[in-house]
Sequence to fold (508 residues):
Amino acid sequence: MKTLFLALFAIFSINILQAQRIHYSDVEKDDYRQMNFEIIGKVGGNINIYKNYRTRNDIAVYFNDMKLKSKTRLDFMPEHVLNVDFIAYPDFYYMVYQYQKRSVMYCAMVKMNGEGKMVTDPVVLDTSQLPLTNENKVYSLLNSDDKQKILIFKINKKNEKVFVITTLLYNSGMELQRRSELQMTGSAREDLFTDFLLDNDGDLIFGRCGRTGNRDYINHFDLVIKKAGEDSLQLNNFPLTDKTLDEIKIKPDNTNKHIIFSSFFYRQKKGNIDGLFSVVWDKNNRSVISETTFPFHDTLRLDARSDNSSLKVAFNDYFIKHIIPTRDGGYAVLAELYYSTSRSSGWNRYDYLYGNYSYMPFDYYYSPYNSMSYNRYNDPWNRYGPGMATRHYAENIMIFYFNKDGNLNWSNTIRKSQFDDNTDMYISYQIFNTGNEVRFLYNTLERRERMLTSVTANAGGQINRDPTLRNLDKGYEFMPRFGKQVGLKEIVLPCMYKNYICFAKLDF
Fold:
């Protein structure tokens, strides 16, 4: 019996060791907390990470155990770089960057290998004439899920009612397939955009939302599609007769050629969130496959709330973070409870939602995303300023799974409670898909230390909390939501160690 117990214990121990391994990069003296970075991915068997501090731009190449292999200074990049984006493939990646010289904005590209070396010389893809000195990026980069289509676009506002969308569609070899220039009318003071997305067919997809007033609910929605082979915009209007919507999230379902969009809805203005509204749209037939108006019942509200507040307001601080399509035509909607408190001002959901999307009438170019999008980490005092105490909260995650007919199959809750002062870099979560389950990584506070926690959700809605992750050295504080999946069961996470940024790779 004792021999059998020891054998079982040995097998169990081996399984634990195989279940999770972690490797930390060494702390480099010039990787200050103010450094900007981008985890590019695993390329040529190496982990490539872009680092920027002031005018210095580097590519750091790491072995699989996160030991530094090489660091390459990107001397070809000009000093005033406004934005950098990456598209990684197994053996190479593209770096697309934009910079300004005098009154001209340049969008350039260079191909690099897994050693962080240039494969091609920089190539200018497009230029834009600017009326004034600009501190915001002009171009935005999208790629399809299979990375076979790449789109660069810019939006130029001609006046308060007309703006021009210029798109440049490339294949995976960065060969230009089509350049289009399209006009769209609207109201700069009332319209706002959703995220812009590119599907595997090379079609540009986004939503145009209408509202009354400067910060009001959405009462008009057009699903806009720019087909890869056409020079026109397809507008599909969805009447909102008995409801107003919150922020709208969109996701293409490339397997079934569908487009899914989802939003919380209100029955009355200035009211509480009443439920979840979702539509599955057939892109080819231009028809609705399913439309779901799912009101939240009291049992669900009781499960969603994090304190003893009223059930009516249980979802008022939830935000939709992800839509995950499934092969059978269903989809999962993930929402997280997030809010902040400040001595200087109250929490405003609508400023949080629409601050990044609304027009500024004096901007010559409009970008749907924040400038300097590669600022994955910022000094919190630069954002809020000393003396403005702001506490950020990120709490429960709600998961809703709808089948192909739009009916709710199941819902479940991942319970967590996170907060931090003056920064939100250590809270919220990161997900990565292993094929048969979705893993959630986030920090929990234990004995005044942040501990990285792993929770999985399978296709049947079962939530499993993994044992405490092993080999988590003391002193490392993870920033999970800025991590990136680099393999089927591998993820690289940035972390802070004694005021310096370093990186850790987790193998599950």
About this structure: Residues 1-18, 356-362, 370-374, 376-386 have pLDDT under 50 and may be disordered.
